[in-house]
Design brief:
The structure holds 2 protein chains of 2 kinds. Chain A starts with a strand and ends with a strand. The longest helix of chain A has 21 residues. Chain A is built from 9 helices and 30 strands. Chain B folds into 3 domains: 153 residues, FAD/NAD(P)-binding domain; 155 residues, 2-Layer Sandwich (D-Amino Acid Oxidase, Chain A, domain 2), CATH 3.30.9.10; 84 residues, Orthogonal Bundle (Arc Repressor Mutant, subunit A). The mean pLDDT of chain B is 96. The chains are: A alpha/beta, B alpha+beta. At the A-B interface, strand 7, helix 3, helix 4 and strand 11 of A face helix 7, strand 18, helix 9 and strand 23 of B. Chain B: This is FAD-dependent oxidoreductase. Chain B: Pfam families: DAO, Fer2_BFD.
Chain lengths: 421, 478
C-alpha cells in the first residue's frame, strides 16, 4: 500500500491551498486526489472576475485565481492524481480511490484533509410541483455547459434563487444572447453578494423579485413556462399573486450543500446547521488527524476565505504529522452562535493549542442593519463591533487573541451574537 | 404481416412479449415513446404485493398471487434486483380491527401464504422501530417484496428481444382497422399488419379497445404523487408499510426501495389527461399523511418528487381476453395496481391465449435467462479491482452520488434495446438518480451519449421527443 503523510481529498481551491501551506510548513509527503480532469475545481468554470481581491489585491477570473495555486503546486512538485474518485476513507485513514489507469487502490495517510467542496440543492429538495421536463438546470450545471463546453441551455430563462451562481449566470446568459426574464427569491433578502446583484442584475435590467417563488412548472418534454407567486412570511404562496412566465429554461440557485458522504461514512460528526464537520480550532474533526476546509466544511461566499482557511488546515495537518496529536491540559472552550448567529467555525477552541490569533467565521440568519456583533467570554462582553449591515449571503468573521484567552482561565464558553442597536 | 403486434412496451406488454418469445412467432412491440418503461410502469410504488387486496375470485387476485409467486425465480432468471422484504398493514384503532381481519381473511382465500395479524406491540416495535406508537395491530405479509420496476420492465423487453421479438420505438398507433385475416395499424411511422393485436397500452388501452369494439370500456388516469428520499433515509423502515384505510382516510405507504432509498406515496386523484404526470402542491402536501403510521419521517431528505398514472378501469378489474366482437384483438387493459406484481402472470396468460389461437410451436432457441447490468456499487473491493483491470471504463466514475461508472453507462447504451436518452441511462444505471439529481453528471452523460451514438450534443434529449437539453451554441443568436 502506498503511504503519504498527508492525503488531500479534492484539488479545488481548498485542497490546493492546504497542500501549499503543508509544504510551506515542511511536509514533503503530500498527495492530492482530484476527481476532475484538471486541478482547480469549480473555479475552472467561474470565468467571471472578482476573485482574489483579498488574497492578491487584484481582480482575477476563477481560472486565473486557480492558476496562482496550481502553478505553486507544480513548482513545489506536490504529487496529485486526476480523474480519480475517492470511494471510501476508513477511520484508520486508509483512502480507497479508483481511476481508469490504476484501478482500485488504497493509500495509507497519516493525516487527511477533507476538501471535497459542495453540491447544489436540486429541484427535488424544493418540492416544486409540476412536470419534470428538460430545461431545469442547477445554475452550476448551466455554468459548466456554457463556460466550459460552449452550449446554450436555453433562450428564455427564469432563475429561482438569488445565490451567487444564479446571479452570475443571469449576466452570463444575457451576454451569450439569452433573455433572462426574472430572478425570484423566496426569502425577503438575496442569498448572494450585494456586488453581484448590482453587477449581474441591475446593470442588465434584470428584475429581482424578493419573497417570490416558483409554484408551477409547465411543459412535459421541454420546459414551456413557470408560474411565480409572492410568498407570505412563512414562505407560503399568496393566492392572487400568481404571474405566468413563458420560458424554456429554469435555473436553480437555491443553496449549496457540503458534500460529506465520505466524511460521514468514516465517522466524522456533522453540524446540522452547516452540514459540514464539527471542527476544533485546528479545523480538525472528531476523527483524530482528519481536517476539513473550504466548502465541505461550510459554504463560503468568497474563495479568498477558502484559501485562507485551507492554508490553516494544511499547516495544522502538517504539524499533526510532525508532532502527533497534542493534548495539552484539556481545556476546550465551546464556541457558539446565538441571537441571529447561525453557527461558528470552529466549534471549540483550545487556548493552549491555538495560534496567536484565531479567526472565527460565521453567518447570520437574517438581514441586520445598524447592529453590533457581540462576543462574550462566558457572560462578559469583550467585543461590541458596529456593523452597518449584515446579511445571510455574506460570511462574517471575528478574531480571538490567544493572549486574551490565556488571561481568562475560567472561560468555558464563547458566544457570538447579533445585537440590535 | 406479423402474427402478433403488442401495443405498448410497458411492463405488461414486455411481459407478454417475453412469454410469447417462448414460441416460434413473428411479433413486434410498438411503443410511442423512445424507450421501454415510459408510462405507468416507471412511476409507481415498486412493490410486489402479497395479494390480500384484490377481491376474492377476481382475476386481479389470481394474477397478483401468481405474479408474487413467480417473482423470486423470475428475478434470478433476469438478474434484476428483488427483495422479499415483506409488508405490514398498520391498524391504528381498535374499531378498525375487523377491517384488518377482513384483509387477512381475503388474503387467505386468495391463496396468500404466511399472513399473520400481530398485536404484540413489543414484537411490532422490534420489526419496525419507527412505526407510530399508536399502532394497535399489523397484518404481516412476508411474501410481499420490492423490485426495481425499471429493471423488471427493461429485462423482460430485452429478453423478449434477444429471443426474437421486434421492438419499434417512437411509433404511436393512430388507428386500428380490421382487414382480411387480421388488423391494419396506422402509426406515426407508417402502417403495420398483423393477425393478432395485444392491447397493452396502459392508460390508453380504452382508446384502442374502443376503436375495435362496440362494448366500450373506460379507463381513468388515477394520478399518484410520490416523494423519493435519499439513501440516508432508506433504512427508516424495513418493510413496505401500508395504512389500513380508516377514518383517517386511505393513507399513503412508506417503503424502502431495492436501491436503498425510501418512497412515500401515492396520492390518488382521478384526472382526464392521460399525460397528466405533473405533481401538485395539494398532492405533495397530502403525502405528509404518511406520518400517521411512520414517525420521524426525514422529509428534509426528499431528493425528488414524481407522479404516476394508474390505468383505472371503471370496474377495477384486469381485462385480459380476446374480444368477442373483435376476434384477433386481445385486451390487456385496466392494469393498475397490483399490475407490476401481476405482470409475469399477465404475460403468461396472454401468451397462452395467443399460443392456442395461433397454434404456435415452441421456440427451441428460447433462452429465458440474461445477465443483468453490472452494478459496481454492489461489488466487493476485489471484484471492482478485477473488473477495472479488465475494462478501465469501470474505473471512471460519472455519477458520484450513485457511484456509477463510464463502464456501466457503456453497457446501458450498447445492450440490446439500449439507452438513448438521459432518462434511459438513469433508469438502467441510476446515473442521475441520486441526491444531486443529475447536476454533476448531466454534461458527462451527454458527452458519452454523443460519442457512443453519434447524436449531436444539441439533439440529446432527457426523454425523447422534444426534450432536448441544449438549444444551441453560445452567441449563436447574436
Amino acid at each position: 500500500m502506498k503511504e503519504y503523510d498527508i492525503v488531500i481529498i479534492g484539488g479545488g481551491p481548498a485542497g490546493l491551498a492546504a497542500a501549499i501551506a503543508a509544504r510551506d510548513n515542511g511536509s514533503e509527503s503530500i498527495l492530492i486526489l482530484e476527481r476532475d480532469k484538471e486541478l482547480g475545481g469549480i473555479l475552472n468554470q467561474c470565468i467571471h472576475n472578482g476573485f482574489g481581491l483579498h488574497t492578491f489585491k487584484e481582480e482575477l477570473t476563477g481560472p486565473e485565481y486557480a492558476a496562482r495555486f496550481t502553478e505553486q503546486v507544480e513548482k513545489y512538485k506536490i504529487e496529485y492524481v486526476l480523474n480519480t474518485m475517492v470511494i471510501e476513507i476508513s477511520p484508520e485513514k486508509v483512502v480507497t480511490a479508483m481511476n481508469r489507469e490504476e484501478g482500485l487502490f488504497d493509500i495509507q495517510a497519516k493525516a487527511i484533509i477533507l476538501a471535497m467542496g459542495c453540491r447544489e440543492r436540486s429541484r427535488g429538495a424544493l418540492n416544486i410541483p409540476g412536470y419534470r421536463p428538460a430545461g431545469i438546470f442547477s445554475a452550476g450545471t448551466a455554468q459548466r455547459l456554457v463556460n466550459m463546453e460552449g452550449f446554450m441551455p436555453g433562450r428564455e430563462v427564469v432563475i429561482l434563487g438569488s445565490g451567487d451562481i444564479g446571479l452570475i449566470m443571469a449576466r452570463r446568459l444575457t451576454l451569450e444572447g439569452a433573455k433572462v426574464k426574472v430572478v425570484a427569491e423566496i426569502m425577503p433578502y438575496s442569498g448572494g453578494l450585494k456586488r453581484n446583484i448590482v453587477q449581474c442584475l441591475d446593470d442588465y435590467g434584470i428584475p429581482l423579485k424578493l419573497s417570490h417563488t416558483v409554484i408551477e412548472i409547465r411543459g412535459k418534454e421541454r420546459l414551456e413556462g413557470i408560474t411565480l407567486a409572492a410568498v407570505d412570511d412563512r414562505g407560503k404562496p399568496i393566492a392572487g399573486t400568481e404571474e405566468e412566465y413563458s420560458c424554456d429554461t429554469l435555473l436553480l440557485s437555491v443553496g449549496l450543500i457540503p458534500e460529506n458522504e465520505l466524511s460521514g461514512a468514516m465517522g466524522v460528526v456533522m453540524n446540522p446547521v452547516t452540514s459540514g464537520p464539527i471542527v476544533n480550532e485546528s479545523l480538525e474533526t472528531n476523527v483524530e488527524g482528519v481536517f476539513a476546509c473550504g466548502n465541505v466544511l461550510h459554504v463560503h461566499d468568497l474563495v479568498d476565505f477558502v484559501s485562507e482557511e485551507a492554508a490553516a488546515a494544511g499547516k495544522n495537518a502538517s504539524n499533526y504529522v510532525k508532532n502527533g496529536e497534542q493534548k495539552p491540559n484539556g481545556r476546550e472552550i465551546i464556541l457558539e452562535g446565538t441571537d441571529g448567529v447561525r453557527y461558528t467555525v470552529p466549534s471549540t477552541i483550545n487556548p493552549e493549542r491555538m495560534e496567536a490569533t484565531q479567526i472565527v467565521r460565521f453567518r447570520v440568519g437574517n438581514v441586520y442593519k445598524n447592529c453590533y456583533i457581540g462576543v462574550y467570554f462566558n457572560d462578559e462582553r469583550v467585543l461590541h463591533r458596529k456593523r452597518m449591515v449584515m446579511a445571510p449571503g455574506e460570511m462574517e468573521e471575528i478574531k480571538l487573541e490567544k493572549e486574551k484567552l490565556l488571561l481568562h482561565p475560567d472561560i468555558d464558553r464563547i458566544t457570538i451574537r447579533v445585537e440590535e442597536a | 404481416m406479423y402474427d402478433v403486434i403488442i401495443i405498448g412496451a410497458g411492463v405488461s406488454g414486455s411481459a407478454v412479449a417475453r412469454e410469447l418469445s417462448r414460441y416460434k412467432v413473428n411479433a413486434c412491440v410498438l411503443e410511442k415513446e423512445e424507450d421501454v418503461c415510459c408510462g405507468t410502469s416507471k412511476a409507481n410504488s415498486a412493490i410486489i404485493h402479497a395479494g390480500y387486496d384484490a377481491a376474492e375470485g377476481s382475476l386481479m387476485a389470481k394474477l397478483n398471487v401468481e405474479g408474487n409467486q413467480i417473482m423470486p425465480e423470475l428475478s434470478k432468471e433476469l438478474d434484476i434486483p428483488f427483495e422479499q422484504c415483506g409488508s405490514l398493514v398498520v391498524c391504528l384503532d381498535e374499531a378498525s380491527l375487523p377491517n384488518l381481519q377482513a384483509l387477512y381473511d381475503r388474503g387467505v382465500k386468495n391463496g396468500v401464504e404466511d399472513l399473520e395479524i400481530i398485536t404484540d406491540k413489543a414484537r411490532i416495535r422490534e420489526m419496525e422501530p419507527n412505526l407510530t406508537d399508536e399502532v394497535v395491530a399489523v397484518l404481516s405479509a412476508p411474501t410481499a417484496g420490492i423490485v426495481c420496476p425499471f429493471h423488471l420492465n427493461i429485462a423482460l423487453a430485452e429478453n423478449a428481444y434477444t429471443n426474437g421479438i421486434d421492438f419499434k420505438f417512437d411509433t404511436e398507433v393512430e388507428s386500428i382497422e380490421p382487414i382480411e385475416g387480421g388488423w391494419k395499424l396506422e402509426t406515426s411511422q407508417g402502417a403495420y399488419e398483423t393477425r393478432y393485436v395485444v392491447n397493452a397500452a396502459g392508460v390508453y388501452a380504452d382508446r384502442f379497445h374502443n376503436m375495435v369494439s362496440e362494448s366500450k370500456i373506460h379507463i381513468t388516469p388515477r394520478r399518484g404523487d410520490y416523494f423519493l428520499l435519499d439513501k440516508n433515509a432508506g433504512k427508516h423502515v424495513n418493510r413496505t408499510i401500508f395504512a389500513l384505510p380508516s377514518k383517517y382516510g386511505k393513507g399513503v405507504l412508506v417503503t424502502p426501495t431495492v436501491h436503498g432509498n425510501l418512497i412515500i406515496g401515492p396520492t390518488a386523484v382521478d384526472i382526464e389527461d392521460k399525460e397528466g404526470t405533473a405533481t401538485t402542491r395539494e398532492g405533495l402536501d397530502e403525502l405528509s399523511k404518511a406520518s400517521l403510521n411512520v414517525k420521524n419521517l426525514p422529509m428534509r431528505q426528499v431528493i425528488t418528487s414524481f407522479a404516476g398514472l394508474r390505468a383505472h378501469e371503471d370496474h377495477h378489474e384486469f381485462i385480459i381476453r380476446e374480444l368477442e366482437d373483435a376476434p384477433g384483438f386481445v385486451d390487456c387493459a385496466g392494469i393498475e395496481s397490483p399490475g407490476l406484481t401481476s405482470s409475469p402472470a399477465i404475460g403468461k396468460m396472454v401468451a397462452e391465449i395467443l399460443r392456442e389461437k395461433l397454434d404456435l410451436d415452441v421456440n427451441p432457441d428460447f433462452n429465458g435467462t440474461r445477465k443483468g447490468n453490472i452494478d459496481l456499487d454492489t461489488l466487493s473491493k476485489e471484484e471492482k479491482a478485477a473488473l477495472i483491470e479488465k475494462e478501465p471504463a469501470y474505473g471512471n466514475i460519472i455519477c458520484r452520488c450513485e457511484m456509477v461508472t463510464e463502464g456501466e453507462l457503456l453497457d446501458a447504451i450498447h445492450r440490446p434495446l439500449g439507452a438513448r436518452t438521459l432518462d434511459g441511462i438513469k433508469r438502467r444505471t441510476r446515473a442521475g438518480a441520486g441526491r444531486c439529481q443529475a447536476g454533476f453528471c448531466t454534461p458527462k452523460t451527454m458527452e458519452i451519449l454523443h460519442r457512443e451514438l453519434g447524436i449531436p450534443m444539441t439533439e440529446i434529449t432527457k426523454s425523447g421527443g422534444d426534450s432536448q437539453l441544449l438549444v444551441g451554441y453560445n452567441k449563436d443568436r447574436i
